[in-house]
Write a structure and sequence with these properties.
single chain; alpha/beta; eleven-stranded mixed beta sheet; 24% strand; globular
């Protein structure tokens, strides 16, 4: 029996595909990395929050945009995946720390047959990795960096693997394939930023998008949209899997296939 999580009784109104009251555990309960074992590429989820006028950050950060409902789903997703990937700018701006900070969340991961700590993944061509952030000072953190550059990790308390790839070989497809083959990653969660999301879309690596739309306005050109970079060659059609509402925020789960 899974241990109770503080805040796990937070309730949402499910509007689609059926109307009912659910918790984050109810909404995310079907996510199981074991269902994707043996894939060449991990099953990849992307999670973003944005304002009603389409901004993914305010004052340079996503934190001010979210609410309790968004944070509960954010941590719920982290509980259910093998690995989390984020861009170097996102890591630095959001000052990333340990991925699973709460002991009860690590216990719940173990109850699901997962490692207590998800693998943190970084892909960088420049080698400009923010090793000064708290993530790299956490001895229990597991980090893998794909880069063509040398990276000095001697001052890091975290468990850091540096995978050197030739610049011509370094694509997100290559990196996530190595995650599956070498690290057993079956389900991967992307937490941004917009440039990384845009690159994942271009390489057709996204399986699902979790998007929180909050009833707030950022105004002007105060932050990026959820994707940046070159446009796709054609529009990507999404399929709505479920829709939740809480305190005016909409929580949307889309499939891309």
């Amino acid at each position: 029996m899974q241990s109770a999580t503080p805040g796990s009784d937070l309730q949402y109104q499910q509007l689609f595909p059926q109307q009912r009251t659910v918790t984050a555990d109810d909404a995310l309960g079907a996510l199981d990395p074991a269902e994707h074992a043996g894939r060449e590429l991990p099953y990849t989820l992307v999670n973003f929050v944005c304002t009603a006028d389409g901004r993914a950050a305010f004052g340079g950060r996503s934190g001010p945009i979210g609410d309790d409902g968004d944070r509960q789903l954010f941590h719920g997703l982290r509980e259910r995946v093998d690995a989390v990937i984020a861009g170097t700018s996102t890591l630095r701006t959001e000052n990333y720390g340990r991925i699973t900070t709460k002991p009860y969340r690590r216990e719940r991961r173990a109850e699901r047959g997962l490692t207590p700590e998800p693998l943190a993944c970084i892909v960088t061509r420049s080698g400009d990795v923010p090793t000064e952030i708290p993530l790299f000072a956490e001895p229990e953190a597991r980090v893998v960096v794909f880069t063509p550059s040398e990276l000095d990790t001697s001052g890091c308390a975290a468990q850091v693997d540096v995978v050197r790839l030739d610049p011509g070989e370094l694509t997100l497809t290559t990196a996530v394939r190595r995650l599956a083959a070498d690290y057993g990653v079956r389900m991967l969660l992307c937490e941004g930023g917009p440039t990384l999301f845009g690159s994942l879309l271009h390489e057709e690596l996204v399986d699902e998008l979790f998007l929180t739309l909050v009833p707030k306005l950022a105004g002007g050109d105060s932050g990026p949209p959820i994707t940046t970079g070159p446009p796709l060659s054609e529009l990507l059609q999404l399929t709505l899997l479920w829709q939740l509402e809480r305190d005016g925020s909409l929580f949307l789960r889309y499939g891309t296939r």
